[in-house]
Amino acid sequence: MVSSEQRRRQLAREKFERQQKRRAQARKRKQHTTVIAAALAVVVAAGATAFATGAFSGDDDKKTKAKDPAAASESAAPTPPEEKKSPEPAMKIDKSAKYSMTLDTGPGRIAIAMDAAKTPRTVNSFQALADKGYFDNTKCHRLTTDGIFVLQCGDPKGDGTGGPGYNIPDENLDALGKPAADSTVTFPAGTVAMANTSQPNSGGSQFFLVYKDTKLPPKYTPFGKMDAAGLKTVQRIAEAGVAGGGADGPPKTEVTVKKATVAKG
């Protein structure tokens, strides 16, 4: 017999998955429209130039919310061939060393121990982005407080649609154990994992901070763990709730990452 709590969580996850697909589709539509617009602009420009010289010289519907950190649409996957992508940063970290990421936010400092051995490409990407100030002065744009308990950050646009222009592969997906009968695993409170578009290998820069044990499909790279003080900070943010009420949206307590640093050791 399925309990009401299990059913509620199941519905939250299903909504979560539908949202991912809608956001990915919306991103593709935007990219397609952009390509068409660019093509038309080229045709118009070409016509004008030819006449004179005889020669020819990405947004999701952010109003639609779901209880899923993977609904981040920063990097729709697969990316249409026509979209020009940035390369993934060259590997520079020492996979055998320890790394940590520190987020200096208004509500408090959040320190994260990163697992470079099991998630080297994820950690390498975060170091490359942090070193160039990519995360500085960005907002943690999404808080979910029902069924899924996460604070989502890492989007330079602050609306869930931004990303670095490249994707990184999924890593360490078996770290949280064998999936249960409902195809989920438990992401323990304190876990830090990659958001994606629900498609394999579609992570970019967005990530989520788990402040209470959360059941999700095992397809989000768990790459770090918050320290006790950082977890308490995120829990205080969650206790204040979502702006405007509800259970999914911008946190009522504004969370701006003033500075993000990734350090070895």
Automatic annotation (TrEMBL):
InterPro entries: Cyclophilin-like_dom_sf (IPR029000), Cyclophilin-type_PPIase_dom (IPR002130), Cyclophilin_A-like (IPR044666). One of its GO terms (molecular function) is isomerase activity. Residues 1-32, 54-94, 242-265 are annotated as: Disordered. Keywords: Isomerase. Residues 108-262 form the PPIase cyclophilin-type domain. The keyword Isomerase applies. Residues 20-32 have a biased composition (Basic residues). The keyword Nuclease does not apply. PROSITE patterns: CSA_PPIASE_2. Residues 1-19, 59-68, 81-94 have a biased composition (Basic and acidic residues). PPIases accelerate the folding of proteins. It catalyzes the cis-trans isomerization of proline imidic peptide bonds in oligopeptides. PANTHER family: PEPTIDYL-PROLYL CIS-TRANS ISOMERASE B-RELATED, PEPTIDYL-PROLYL CIS-TRANS ISOMERASE-RELATED. This is Peptidylprolyl isomerase.
